[in-house]
Amino acid sequence: MMTCRSFREKLQPGTSEPELLEHLRHCDACLDFAMSVDPDLFFRSIGGEELVPPGGVDAFVGDVMSQVRVRQAETSLAPHRTVSVWQRLAIAATIAVGITGATLAYRFEHRPVTHPASAIAVAARPPAAHFAPTATKSFVETYSSHDATIVEMPNDGSDTKVVMIFDDKLPADL
Description:
By secondary structure, the chain is mainly alpha-helical. The chain has helices at 4-10, 18-26, 28-37, 41-46, 57-77, 85-109, and strands spanning 149-152, 163-166. It has a two-stranded antiparallel ribbon with strand order 1-2. Helix 2 (18-26) crosses helix 3 (28-37).
């Protein structure tokens, strides 16, 4: 057995002498001194020369590398989702808003042009058709004025009569 004094005299950084490492495993005072000289001596003093994996070190390294290759193959074959769930929902909402907006714009651009009932009323209905009045303004049943210009539209044989009245004294919403 080595003494602490001879251990401290023989200790050099990076040493791997078995007698020094054996003393280092059993003496706590020399362990503290050895850590100040070379911190790697702590790991070398643990030992492990007798710990050899079954089949040898080469077989162990081969098994580890085969596991590494298997894990790499698993990750390369796994589906990679580059778009998260929230991004997919945002994309779907954007598409839905776009389609709705395009539909509304199309309907707005292609709706039939309606003229106000007080200005021009066109009656092109068959005689047997039932219809409700579409005008929201009141009708003028009779009107007499010396300053007004009254224009009567030609009748196409229906019961509807279209008359246009131009007078500065009439209210604008009539």
